[in-house]
Design a protein that fits this description.
Blueprint: E1 11-12, H1 24-32, E2 33-37, H2 45-58, H3 62-81, H4 90-103, H5 108-116, H6 119-139, H7 141-144, H8 153-157, H9 165-175, E3 179-183, E4 192-196, E5 204-209, E6 212-218
Parallel strand pairs: 3-5
Antiparallel strand pairs: 1-2, 2-6, 3-4, 5-6
């Protein structure tokens, strides 16, 4: 990735494994996906990839964008019920709403790409998603109390801290979004596929490899 880039243009998926393109995992991956958007590895890659990929999936669907905007507005209530003061999240909430509103206009693709590569805007979106994740964990503490490796709320809320399965589960539940995570970290030479929640139709496809997330673009059906 170029210096300063937070989310890259679409690239051929082969850029991910130029030295291993004949391995079983890489051949399977390239058979399923044609492109990748690389995301800056700064500890925020999951949240940045998650929001960019979801908004990209909604582009050119005004009704879907409006529904997502309305959903985001209601999430402020979740943060308040978890004890967050409005002053701690209102600016970040406004940033998310501003990005969605610009995606409803013309040149959506260009605007989305520009927003997510503007550090201040992109990080503000990430911060809101982190606060929302923390709020969901607090508001549904009984559902997550049995996770042995659950992170501290400070780790969830802090920028630059890598997420884990609990964070991903909480955010997808909070926004009612299904994701497909393809992991390269399996030991048997095969990709590992996780659909969260199980059985739903995913809105995005993310690649997980060595604690890092990228955005995958599926090949069109034959």
């Amino acid at each position: 990735m170029e210096a300063g880039t937070l989310v890259s243009d679409r690239e051929d998926v082969s850029v991910l494994f130029e030295q291993q393109k004949h391995s079983r995992k890489c051949q399977e991956l390239s058979g399923l996906f044609s492109s990748v958007r690389r995301v800056r590895g700064d500890g925020n890659c999951f949240y940045r990839a998650f929001c960019f990929a979801y908004l990209e999936s909604l582009l050119h669907d005004v009704k879907a964008l409006q529904r997502f905007k309305e959903k985001i507005i209601t999430t402020s209530e979740h943060l308040s019920s978890a004890g967050f003061d409005q002053s701690s999240f209102q600016l970040h909430l406004n940033t998310v709403l501003n990005v969605i509103e610009h995606c409803e206009g013309s040149e959506q693709d260009e605007m989305l790409f520009r927003f997510f590569n503007d550090r201040m805007t992109s990080d503000s979106v990430v911060q809101y998603l982190r606060l929302l994740t923390s709020a969901h964990l607090q508001n549904h503490a009984d559902d997550f109390c049995n996770f042995v490796e659950a992170p501290s709320l400070q780790e969830v809320e802090a920028m630059g801290m890598e997420c884990d399965h609990v964070d991903i589960l909480a955010l997808t539940q909070a926004l009612d979004i299904c994701i497909h995570i393809v992991s390269m970290d399996g030991e048997d030479g095969q990709l590992v596929h996780h659909v969260i929640p199980d059985g739903a139709e995913p809105s995005m496809h993310l690649l997980h490899h060595v604690s890092h997330f990228s955005i995958l673009g599926p090949r069109p059906p034959p």
